[in-house]
Design brief:
Length: about 375
């Protein structure tokens, strides 16, 4: 099963279940998984606890062998059902801390913690005062700690925490407050910076930000993939928009990297006309990697019965999964360095540093940056 919110007033990730269905069609058209037909169930979590729990109960009822490549902010609602049935959660989006603590979770990226730590580390060396605009939600409450870990690693003061509703239609008040705080006298030298981590509402915020910044000294921006992609940058004015010059941290290489060719082949063969599926979308990319993990787990069973327990056992027994250069080799163990700060399942703390130059999202630094050491210093209490 693959689930994600669709048609809500907050974050929506319709491309994730849509790509999962396309992946199943592609796998089945090419002989299946070790000769077995792959059946993918999809579910809309509606960005609420009731629907998230309903999706998990359906996974249990229909005997899903794994939940793969999904997005939900409501891990407290769905993880207990999966854990009770022994169903592994492979490649969640990394939006909640529980995805890095549950023994049945197998994350493929470092989630929001790694993105913000990496961004903070980069901005710490170049920014004056930093203002973080983030959702006023439980998931959002964890974000300042991670950004501050990166900022302090770069020798900077902590960011000013600016809360914002995750489903607003405009953010003029929040944009003005962020600009005032970013042009204050707290922390560091250089130009002030505004960091946005509002998911789908980042583009709405930046629209308000662009109108509000008149009369303020120039302020740089920074954000994380998942809150912005090339389509958002284009809509905001491309090279003449507020994202120009912004640093953006991501989990994976830029969408133009040749390593994405196999994923793009699936899309071109099975979902070319499906406008929900964008190869530059981080959710779609995460779903591709999650199904890559699932495929290798099934193949490792050597034709044996495919059950939730068997898939979980393969992953727990030290299976090393390769992703064609999109991530480091993945292997899940509970004896990880980040267990000391409450993230024992976070096995991939690599991020990529990207920047908006001439209106295009490009690599700002070759390869990956490992933020494990930065996260180890995070004050999560």
């Amino acid at each position: 099963m693959t689930w994600a919110p669709e048609g809500t007033s907050a974050t929506n990730k319709p491309g994730m279940p849509a790509f999962a269905s396309a992946y199943a069609r592609w796998i089945n058209a090419n002989g299946g998984l070790n000769g077995r037909k792959l059946k993918v169930l999809t579910c809309n979590d509606h960005n609420d606890t009731v629907s998230a729990a309903a999706c998990a109960r359906r996974a249990v009822k229909e005997k899903a062998v794994a939940v793969v490549g999904s997005y939900s902010q409501h891990s407290d609602a769905f993880l207990p059902h999966l854990e009770g049935a022994g169903i592994p959660y492979i490649g969640g989006y990394g939006v909640t801390n529980a995805e890095f603590t549950s023994p049945l979770s197998y994350p493929v990226n470092g989630g929001q913690p790694s993105l913000l730590a990496g961004l903070g580390k980069e901005l710490g060396a170049t920014c004056g005062p930093v203002s973080l605009v983030r959702p006023d939600t439980i998931a959002g409450d964890a974000l300042p700690v991670m950004l501050d870990a990166g900022l302090t690693a770069g020798g900077h003061a902590e960011a000013v925490d600016q809360l914002a509703p995750e489903d607003a239609t405009e953010y003029a008040t929040q944009a003005e407050a962020a600009l005032k705080k970013a042009t204050g006298d707290a922390g560091g030298g250089g130009k002030g910076c505004v960091v946005t981590a509002l998911g789908d509402r980042t583009s709405t915020f930046m629209d308000s930000f662009r109108r509000t910044r008149q009369g303020y000294p120039e302020v740089r921006t920074g954000t994380v993939l998942g809150s912005v992609d090339q389509t958002v940058i284009n809509a905001a004015g491309a090279a003449s928009g507020p994202f120009e010059g912004a640093y953006v941290t991501g989990w994976y290489p830029v969408a133009s990297d040749p390593a994405w060719a196999p994923m793009k082949k699936v899309i071109s063969e099975q979902a070319f006309s499906d406008t929900r599926i964008d190869p530059t979308d981080t959710g779609v990319q995460t779903t591709w990697i999650a199904y890559t993990v699932f495929r290798q787990a099934v193949e490792s069973l050597d034709g044996g019965e495919v059950t939730a327990g068997a898939v979980r056992g393969a992953l727990d027994d030290g299976l090393e999964v390769t992703t064609g250069g999109l991530t480091p080799t993945l292997r899940w163990e509970f004896t990880d360095e980040l267990a000391s700060i409450g993230f024992p399942r976070l096995v991939n703390a690599d991020v990529t540093l990207q920047a908006v130059r001439k209106g295009r999202l490009v690599s700002a630094r070759k390869g990956f940056v490992d933020v494990t050491k930065t996260l180890e210093k995070a004050d999560v209490n």
